[in-house]
Amino acid sequence: MIAKPMGLSVSAGSLNTKWKELLFSFSGFGPNFLMVLMGAFYSDAVNPAGFMDNTAGQSIVGTICLVVPGLFSVLMLVAKAFDGLIDIPFASVTDNLSTRWGRRRPPIAICFAPMVVSFAMCWLPVFGTAESAQLGNTIWFILWALVFFSTYTMCLISFYGSLSTVCSDEAQRLRVSSFKSFFDTISYCIVYALVPVIVSALNNASGGSLGMDEFVFMSLPLMFTMIIPLFMIKEGAKYGYPENEGAEKPQKITLGKSLKITFKNKIFRNWLVVNCCSFFGLQMFLVSMNTMIIGGMGMNALEMMMLNTCAFAPVPIMLYLFRKMKERRGLRFTYQTCLLSFALAILGFFFGSKLVCGDNKTVQYIIGCVGGVLGSWAIGSFFMMPYMVPSQISAVEEKLLKRNHSAMYFAAQAFATSIVGAVASYGIYDIIKNIFFTKSGSFVWAEAVAETGKSASQVAAETLGVAEDAVYNFGTTLVPFVVAIMCIVGFLFAFRMPRDYNHKEVAMAFLRMDPTLDISEYINEEEPKPEKGEILFVQIGLSVLSGFIFGFIWLGFMLRAIRKAAGEALKVRLNPLFWALGCFIPFVGIYVLIKRHSELAAAAEKYGLSIGRKTAAFIVTGILLPVLPVNVVGLSLMQHDLNRYYAAERAADAAAAPAKGVATADEAV
User: In this predicted model, what pLDDT tens digit does every residue of 572-584 receive, in sequence order?
Assistant: First the structure.
């Protein structure tokens, strides 16, 4: 029998194959996806004021506000703060739990069912849609949200707490963190790029009767990914851990002591400040992104998918470049560039808004696509860093001090980010989105209730005595500036971080806190070298999953729309073949875009519209962007011309309607 290294668990290194690493990283996908969905749509689903007069099926009941706006914002802020606060005692429980089944698995098994049920209840307005039901719905939603946040926290904190022991070394921990960040990217891609399109399509197919709540119920089975760790975390009586005896028995750490150790750790504390700054801006952006695009920029679901494709498709490549820059310039410098690029990217939502651009779609597309690519440099790192930093610190601490309270680091981080996220989402944005203004400087508070049958923007326009297109939402206008400021603040605080968070830097930080420690093993440790196979696998395989898939969907919608527009004039009907060739064969997409654009141009001539030829543009951009399976710039140009075609078609239909009416009247006479 092989002896166990002192202070380490048998579960260490239980991810002994690449597919296990990938599967373990996927475990939290379902709950994380639905939590992201809640963060992105819940506030606007129950109070859709920021959508102006077009919810595209993203609310529960049209433009109707189901809650008391101010009270709901305050109570949700309290609920999110509670969500962060309970992370700390829950982390202490899972760090010190000792059962025959282990300490991480029992909390997941116990909390799984209540997590699923409570999440579903958060989307059911049982008191109705009338104005008199707002208070009842508010209390109902908040109570179930408290249950969901508690059970979700217990499941995820136990899962994250196992990361330092199921991985055997820094290289594997970084690899699993990278996989986890990719799956998080997939969650955000689906939520922000694909969900609006799916919901809009389903809503249209159902005659406008489907709401966001029904889509949520269809997505609930994804929660079952959370049971994967129950079969992959090796602990308990069967494996002799954490119920070891003798010298290898892990220390029991009280809640107070665990908190003291965590917050006295300077290297963790400096990271926490920077993470809070970036998370404040990130959370405010995520909760308001749909309204900034649909309401602030006046775009539809497909156009939203175009912007999100530019933001998410390059993420795998950006993460690869992130690691390359980290090797040369260090983690701190690389992360600082991410903060600055994200600040610039988010400002694009203001400069691309209808307030600044009016109805100039071309300028909006350019600003949106360029901003999306800039933001993609930061997105992957925002997902990866919160997993990697705490797990690195706890892994070194366990080896040096023979104590494991890794869940507390994640809990402290979650507590801090929950507070700042709650303030950003519900303390600021959820309130200011009910404020509307005009260019002349008039402001008004407005909300929509069932009794009036009017949207919040219509109420605001009537109150101010102007046309509805002359009022703008204050929330969607202010958000980009707040996000940019917080990113810059985080950039400045990042100078207090170490150059890297590798084992050597972390061990030296512990040495400064306790000069009696022996860190010679870490001082002489060589930096782990990334595996070429791993990089290739991540870059090619997961990039398709995380971002390019939405470019594929976009191209499919485009080809179908052009086929419908061209009708009988369409010479080639092999749409699926064209789509496959354009997606997966390098440079073939150039031919596909040129061919379909020429057919669109021919179809537009019947409305007297000349959209010109863009052959040179498709060729040049297709050659310059060979790394992307889809030419997002070419698709943007095609989308612009397709929108012009639709506008001409609508104008022709509107002109024909009165003429048809006159003819019918003459016939009647």
Answer: 455 667 677 666 6
